[in-house]
Amino acid sequence: MQDSNQSMDDYAKSGHQIEAMVSDFAEVEKVASKTLADSSDILNIATHVSGTTMNLDKQVNLFKT
Predict the structure, then answer these.
(1) Which long-range contacts (C-beta less than 8 Å, at least 24 apart) are formed by 6-14?
(2) Structural domain that includes position 41
(3) In this predicted structure, what is the pLDDT of residue 30?
(4) What is the largest CA-CA distance in the chain?
(5) Is 64 helix (H, G, I), strand (E, B) or coil?
(6) Consecutive sets of 10 residues in the chain, 65 residues long: mean pLDDT of each?
């Protein structure tokens, strides 16, 4: 009977550990998704700045002698 109780306790403990791991994975996925979105925003901004810089360079070159 003692072994049976220990097995049930171990089973319950394992279940709680698995629930905690799933929760941790969900949090990691949430953070990773936000990081991906932020990275995409940074890429869009960098692309815009690059294009603006190239256009400015073209305009400046019009005034060079």
Answers:
(1) none
(2) 1-64
(3) 97
(4) 97
(5) coil
(6) 83 94 98 98 98 96 83
Q: Read off φ and ψ for residue 33, nearest 5 degrees.
A: -65, -40
- Residue 12 corresponds to which amino acid? A
Angle at 18 between CA 31 and CA 25, to 5 degrees: 10
Extract the tokens encoding 16: 């709680």
pTM, rounded to two decimals: 0.63
Domain count, the chain: 1
Name the token pair of 40: 């995409």
Token pair in block for residue 59: 């305009």
Tokens of 46: 């960098």
